[in-house]
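Case study 2.
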Amino acid sequence: MLKLKITISLMILFISFSIAQNVNVIVGKYHLPNSLDLEIFKQNNKYYGKIIALNGYENGQIKDKKNPDKSKHNDLLIGKIIIEDLEYDSSEKEWVNGRMYGPEKGMFFDFKITEVRQNEIEIVASKYFFWKTLEWQKI
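Prediction:
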């Protein structure tokens, strides 16, 4: 009987660990189509993303010139948090309810991650009735 309890306990622990690992699979560094490199990290059960490299972004732009808040036009893009409040939805198996700032347009978008593959993630950004699906390469 003791062996059975230990076996069941270990199976539950293993399954819980596997699920937790799956949820955090998006944590890492990505190269975006607009030449930015981004790091996604977890904080307080939500996911965030910050710019870690510019790679010649927008012909050498290094400051947040297009931010709708003019007081932020001189803020550096490196280190800027551009993904906020992303949460994992276990029923949909997606990361949802996020918000993303697009510095090339100075706009905020609704944001979610819909699929994770070995070397890339698929994201959907939307604003009003418009949406765009992109693939980000893992680096």
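The chain has one helix and eight strands.
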